[in-house]
Amino acid sequence: MKNAKITRKITQGVYALTTLGGGCIVDTVSRASAGEQPLITVAVAKTNHSHKLLCENERFALSVLGEKVNPDIIQTFGFKTSKECDKCGEVETEEINGIPVVKDSLGYMFCEKVDAIDMETHTLYVGRMIEADVFEDEKPMTYAYYQEHKDDLRKVETETGKTAWVCTACGYVYYGDEVPDDYKCPLCGLGKDYFKKREN
């Protein structure tokens, strides 16, 4: 394969997926049917803790992120794991039918899960949108925009006395003098070789 990065040219948005117990940043969201309650699909990596949460829950929400989104939301939902922190407690949210949605977003889609399809490295979750709203009529963030501005959107502040090692695949940050030889990224599952020291 000459250059798989061509997939970054696929037009898609950036969303905060939430369910009971946590959530994550996703970009593989699509409307799969029409009507008042369309089917919405989202692919989630099996290595992501949110995958486990979606397996256990029947409802989820997708908050549509705009280009002016607070970078802290990208940091929290994109580069932390729900196993270690309460993401929805760190970001301002409101509950819709018991599921938190991100307030600093363009709006949300609340879905009831109707199917889960195995897709090798990911699971494609299919949900029926039963409620939705628009908060702001602004420009949505695309994956291409994120790639262009990702350094600003995922700035890493080194903890006092510690070195920040950033996963070049997903952006997760490990703090320590060195990344252990057997370390696996808790978000994408990749090993030490994918971590690069971040100079601040």
Can you give me a brief rundown of this structure?
By secondary structure, the protein is of the alpha+beta class. Helices cover 16% and strands 36% of the residues.
Helix-strand blueprint:
Elements: E1 15-19, E2 22-26, E3 29-31, E4 39-45, H1 49-56, E5 59-64, H2 71-79, H3 87-90, E6 93-96, E7 99-102, E8 107-119, E9 122-134, H4 143-153, E10 164-167, E11 173-175, E12 195-198
Antiparallel strand pairs: 1-2, 1-5, 3-4, 4-9, 5-8, 6-7, 8-9, 10-11, 10-12
What features would you describe in this structure?
The chain is an alpha+beta fold. It folds into 2 domains: 146 residues, Electron Transport, Fmn-binding Protein, Chain A (Pnp Oxidase, Chain A); 42 residues, Rubrerythrin, domain 2 (Single Sheet), CATH 2.20.28.10. It contains 4 helices and 12 strands. The strands form 3 sheets. Strands 2-1-5-8-9-4-3 form a 7-stranded antiparallel β-sheet, with helices on both faces. Strands 11-10-12 form a 3-stranded antiparallel β-sheet, with no helix packed on it. Strands 6-7 form a two-stranded antiparallel ribbon. It is globular, with a radius of gyration of 17 Å.
- The tally of strands reads 12
Shape: globular
CATH fold assignment of the largest domain: Pnp Oxidase, Chain A
Number of domains: 2
Look at the structure and name the CATH superfamily of the largest domain.
Answer: Electron Transport, Fmn-binding Protein, Chain A
Structural class: alpha+beta
- Beta-strand residue fraction: 35-45%
Give the distance, in angstroms, between the N- and C-terminal Cα atoms: 34 Å
CATH class bucket of the largest domain:
Mainly Beta
Helix-strand string? EEEEHEHHEEEEHEEE
Radius of gyration: 17 Å
Strand order of the largest sheet: 2-1-5-8-9-4-3
Number of helical elements: 4
Uncertain residue segments = none
What percentage of residues falls in helices of 4 or more residues? 10-25%
What CATH architecture label of the largest domain applies? Answer: Roll
